[in-house]
Amino acid sequence: MTVVTTLPDRRLLLVHAHPDDESIGTGSTMAHYAASGAHVTLVTCTLGEEGEIHVPELAGLAAAEADQLGGYRLAELAHACAELGVTDHRFLGGAGRYRDSGMMGLPTNGHPRAFWGADLDEAAGHLLEILREVRPQVLITYDDNGFYGHPDHIQANRVAMRAVELAAAEGIAPAKVYWTAMPQSVLEAGMTHFEESSDNPFAGISDATDLPFCTPDKDIAARIDATEQHAAKEAAMRAHATQIPATSWLYSVAGNFGAEFMGVEYFTLAVGTKGPGSGPYGWESDLFAGLETAGSTDRGGTDRIPVSSAGQR
Fold this sequence. Notes:
The protein contains eight helices and ten strands. By secondary structure, it is of the alpha/beta class. The protein has a single domain, classed as Rossmann fold (3-Layer(aba) Sandwich), CATH 3.40.50. Strands 2, 3, 4, 5, 6, 7, 8 and 9 form an eight-stranded mixed beta sheet that branches. Strands 1-10 form a two-stranded antiparallel sheet. β3, α2 and β4 form a beta-alpha-beta unit. α1 runs antiparallel to α6, α2 packs antiparallel against α6 and α3 crosses α4. It starts with a strand and ends in a 5-residue tail after the last strand.
């Protein structure tokens, strides 16, 4: 049986490890494309059960106590998505299928449901079902080091890239896969700015290349200027109150750099052909650059997508 679904002609899918990752790393990009009429699908791999809790009265939700933090973060994520204008959100394999693994090397990595230990093809199969349904032209996830080395971020990359391989075998793979990144020049500018600050997020680091997420400018493929959505990103981050305290350096940086910090996000291109860009390195300003989608000129376009019964939710 085949079901035909009508979706906007531009479709973006993001694979993130925990609730709050989507807002911190790609919030402005998500809000930008949602506001432009693209279909934005967020896939979150775990409930974030092992996260720290920055709201004292909720300390009892911790994994070592009631172990109810994951359930609470469901509501935080729903609030954040609403702030970003994202209406299509899924948990990989369903809510609670995979558990937050905690930081690398901790005993929580060995939990029976830890995402870090998930069977790769099984997890990728869950994502493949969503790819069959949505047929995104563009997919975003982390690099193969998970941006900064968290096991769940690394696993999210592995699962996403395996699902893309499986989708390619069916002829339905995204045309482009991007990995989140931070240009070396941007990090160096931030280090200079905060050098004398008492709230220096770069304290103890003198060379930007020592940071695991530092990417040479020449390797950046896209710079998405979504400064018009910086307020939505900040509101989404504040929705994750258990994870991002009101005193976070993230908000301090936002206060200094404003829309530029909150609204501009960068990516490397892992799969696909880079589209037209500008500047010394030809950075794209649109993740759909070079793709033939009606959304490039007409925001009102839709695609009728045939979906096999295996791909239905």
